[in-house]
Amino acid sequence: MKIVYAFATVSVLALSGCVSANMAEEQAQGMAADQCAKMGKQFVQTGGSAGSDGAVAGATARGHCVGPGDPDYVPPPPPPAQ
Length: 82
Prior knowledge:
By secondary structure, the chain is an alpha+beta fold. The protein has one helix at residues 21-37; strands spanning 2-11, 42-52, 56-66.
């Protein structure tokens, strides 16, 4: 099991009004999931935080990578019957 930490910062002009902590949090989770996927594993989030001041949003995602045989592993759904 590999521990993974990801930090994402999203910055845009404050006038746009589109910066959100949720966007940064989704980006951090995606970065962590990508790191695990490169190892053929899934990302299981165990913590993190997110915040925004209107112009800059930042988030962290903490968790670990799991694969078959790990207790937190969820196998992918079977392909639909044809």
